[in-house]
């Protein structure tokens, strides 16, 4: 960790995985003999580049682009691109590190990577976003390929951005290489259910955790944070499972809707109009209200699905949730709960699903998109959703079994970290020192 100063999120993610691995260190001296942990702390390759582009006023803007190709033991580097002003090398490394174990847990042949830029798409015109994406891809394309590195979306990167990125990749390489990016539009190589997959998966994971305790999402009040790709479809799946999603948020505040969030209205405001969350309360009327700032976790609920960003749920929020009787927390976002918050949930015996397990549905469906691209096929919604559901149930079962096996029953954090790690470590040993 001394080699990575000024990267608190990366250190936090590494520390959590290493703590979990203490449960197996005596049984697996070979991991120490092969310096697997030290090797895992160092990405295989990190690319940092200048992204120049011209705004609508004709001024030159400069952003910084990143791609951390973290680990390719199980397959090509796979992980999203994030466009947000907070992006820096430490954030991209933390996300890439988590992605290795998440992708391993899916059981699909994908390695771990992550990338992005400090570019902020909020308030930018379509033309500005397009010129930025084209400039970003002008550098990144030489590092990508369906057998090398396959990016996707993340915060600030949705279907529009993937379209501009794919268009520029195709133009620069003169290849229609559909499997080089995932999250594509349905008319040009995308997969049904990819858009919904992360949010659906996080809700399914919550349901599985509750079922393991003889309960379910049905009839439960659920708080969701965020109102982007993950949050919208977590809300949809919660409602399909019989739960009542009562909140959504963005960086300005949150809304509470006691009648259950009206998904069509929220999608219109967020996906179509790219508006702010207060507009939901204004247009919905009735029982909906907007809270400026504040913490969405103050709302009394049975289940929490954090779906916005890292470290958004701290120790105070966790204590409030526990005081209000929360039963399960399923991380739709990456590392949204601080380590202290996770300790509070553990102490209160709240079922806690860490992001690398609970939000793995998105990358799993990306891998299904790659399968469809490779076979020049397109699957139905029902078939793809069925595959997603099976994958989420499989991940849940693998976490529980592994936690049992290493003497930490019910601990999904340890289960996910150990199960994800073992496959990667064994492959690295098989490949020798490379
Ligand atoms: P989106 O950009 O679609 O939405 C992000 C949402 O979170 C927005 O409502 C945004 O509000 C809010 N948000 C972002 N940053 C902050 C912040 N610093 N403070 C408060 N609110 C914030 O992103 P996604 O839904 O794709 O991603 C959300 C999370 O899920 C991320 O952690 C991502 O890594 C993770 N994830 C996403 C996957 C996917 O398939 N998309 C897969 C697995 C994990 P505002 O618009 O105001 O910024």
Describe this structure in a few short sentences.
This protein is an alpha/beta fold and 434 residues long. It has 16 helices and 13 strands. The chain is globular, with a radius of gyration of 21 Å.
The residue-averaged pLDDT reads 97
Task: Note the quaternary state here.
Answer: single chain
Q: Helical region count?
A: 16
CATH class of the domain at 196-353: Alpha Beta
The backbone outline, from C-alpha atoms, is globular
Under CATH, the homologous superfamily of the domain at 196-353 reads: NAD(P)-binding Rossmann-like Domain
Task: Give helix % range.
Answer: 40-55%
Percent strand equals 15-25%
Return the string of H and E elements.
Answer: HHHEEEHEHEHHEHEEEHHEEHEHEHHHH
| End-to-end distance | 21 Å
The secondary-structure class comes to alpha/beta
Strand runs, count? 13
Widest sheet, order of strands: 1-2-4-3-5
Q: At CATH's second level, what is the architecture of the domain at 196-353?
A: 3-Layer(aba) Sandwich
Q: Which ions, cofactors or small ligands are bound in this entry?
A: NADPH dihydro-nicotinamide-adenine-dinucleotide phosphate
* CATH fold topology of the domain at 196-353: Rossmann fold
**Poorly predicted sequence stretches spanning 5 or more consecutive residues:** none
Sheet bearing the most strands, described? Answer: 5 strands, mixed
Rg over CA atoms, rounded to whole Å, is 21 Å
């Amino acid at each position: 960790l001394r080699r990575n100063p000024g990267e608190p999120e990366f250190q936090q993610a590494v520390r959590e995985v290493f703590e979990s691995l203490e449960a197996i260190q005596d049984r697996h001296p070979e991991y120490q003999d092969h310096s697997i942990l030290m090797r895992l702390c160092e990405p295989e390759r990190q690319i940092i580049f200048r992204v120049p582009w011209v705004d609508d006023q004709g001024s030159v803007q400069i952003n910084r682009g990143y791609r951390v190709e973290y680990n390719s033991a199980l397959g090509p580097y796979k992980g999203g691109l994030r466009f947000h002003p907070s992006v820096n090398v430490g954030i991209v490394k933390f996300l890439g590190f988590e992605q290795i174990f998440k992708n391993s847990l899916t059981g699909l042949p994908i390695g771990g990577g992550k990338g992005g830029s400090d570019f902020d798409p909020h308030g930018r015109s379509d033309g500005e976003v397009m010129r930025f994406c084209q400039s970003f891809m002008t550098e990144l394309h030489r590092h990508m390929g369906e057998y090398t590195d396959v990016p996707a979306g993340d915060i600030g990167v949705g279907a529009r951005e993937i379209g501009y990125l794919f268009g520029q990749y195709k133009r620069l390489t003169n290849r229609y290489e559909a499997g080089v990016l995932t999250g594509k539009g349905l008319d040009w190589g995308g997969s049904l259910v990819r858009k919904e997959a992360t949010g659906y998966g996080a809700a399914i994971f919550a349901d599985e955790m509750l079922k393991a305790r003889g309960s379910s999402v049905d009839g439960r009040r659920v708080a969701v944070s965020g109102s982007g790709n993950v949050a919208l479809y977590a809300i949809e799946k919660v409602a399909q499972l019989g739960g009542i999603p009562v909140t959504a948020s963005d960086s300005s505040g949150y809304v509470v809707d006691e009648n259950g969030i009206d998904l069509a209205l929220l999608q219109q405001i967020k996906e179509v109009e790219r508006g702010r969350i207060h507009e939901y309360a204004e247009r919905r009327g009735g029982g909906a209200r907007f809270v400026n700032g504040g913490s969405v976790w103050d709302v009394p609920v049975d289940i929490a699905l954090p779906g916005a960003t890292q470290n958004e749920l701290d120790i105070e929020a966790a204590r409030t949730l526990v005081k209000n009787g929360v039963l399960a927390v399923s991380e739709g976002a990456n590392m949204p709960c601080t380590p202290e918050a996770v300790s509070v949930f553990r102490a209160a015996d709240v079922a806690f699903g860490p992001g690398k397990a609970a939000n793995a549905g998105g990358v799993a469906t990306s891998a299904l998109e790659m399968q469809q691209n490779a076979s020049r096929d397109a699957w139905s919604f029902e078939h793809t959703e069925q595959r997603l559901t099976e994958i989420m149930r499989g991940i849940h079962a693998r976490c529980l079994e592994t936690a049992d096996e290493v003497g930490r029953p019910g601990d999904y954090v340890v289960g996910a970290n150990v199960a994800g790690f073992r496959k990667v470590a064994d492959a690295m040993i098989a490949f020798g020192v490379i």
